[in-house]
Design brief:
The protein is 42% helix and 12% strand. It is an alpha+beta fold.
Length: 238
């Protein structure tokens, strides 16, 4: 069998390196700044050292496929390799969360080294999440980690029998009802001299929209004549 080798695409992911393993393409990273220009010689590309390092890491993960189990770190590496080309920003967010759980120590062992089928349990996720005081943060972290394990279960070429985090309890959403009076709103407008920011505060006041929703809004979504804003249909990130 021919050994898989990294290859370069100038159009995908803004110029990135990939490798095909078990019928699936894995993103290894963008071409490093300052590295030699990608060149294909005698049928093989010349990946820089940074890309080769990522390639060897991924190959090490693949070598565990014939074994009875994966570690949590293995699963995370496979998941991120698939997500990165599709949604780099979301992959970055997942990596930040998964790395935190990976280095969490439970009874003297790092969670990232736990075998998914034989050792990993909901208590490992819950004990880690509880160290964060915000219920919303706990919800986000637990939900993200559950999603990764669910992805692994659905992958036919990954030997994960069931989601080890399925029974992890997700904190309920706590109400944060804080009502700002009209006088307080007017005081905020006087406090800021920036006209653009005052417009932003006014939009929040009159629409009741979330700050993040308004920050992404553009003039094109304004419906002329009726004073309405129509948000385009967007695909959920998760």
């Amino acid at each position: 069998m021919r050994q898989p080798h990294p290859w370069y695409s100038e159009t995908r992911s803004g110029g990135g390196w990939f490798v095909k393993l078990s019928g699936e393409q894995h993103f290894l990273g963008k071409h490093p700044v300052g590295a030699a220009k990608p060149v294909k010689r005698t049928g093989r590309w010349n990946p820089p050292s940074e890309i080769l390092s990522e390639y060897h890491k991924l190959m090490a993960v693949r070598d565990t496929a014939s074994k009875a189990d994966y570690t949590f770190d293995n699963i995370c590496a496979l998941y991120l390799a698939e997500l990165e080309p599709e949604n780099p920003a979301l992959a970055k967010r997942y990596r930040q969360i998964l790395d935190k759980l990976s280095v969490h120590v439970y009874k003297g062992r790092r969670v990232g080294k736990f075998l998914v089928n034989a050792e990993l349990e909901a208590v490992h996720l819950e004990s880690w999440a509880k160290q964060y005081p915000s219920d919303q943060t706990q919800r986000t972290y637990i939900t993200f980690c559950k999603a990764v394990m669910e992805w692994a279960v659905k992958k036919k070429n990954i030997n994960v029998h069931q989601n080890p985090f399925a029974e992890a309890k997700v904190p309920k959403v706590t109400s944060r009802a804080v009502v700002i009076s009209e006088d307080e709103h007017k005081a905020l407008l006087k406090f800021w001299n920036n006209d653009s920011f005052c417009d932003f505060l006014q939009a929040l006041w009159y629409t009741g929209a979330r700050p993040g929703e308004l920050a992404k809004s553009r003039p094109g979504i304004l419906t002329k004549g009726c004073g309405g804003w129509t948000r385009p249909n967007t695909r959920p990130a998760g």
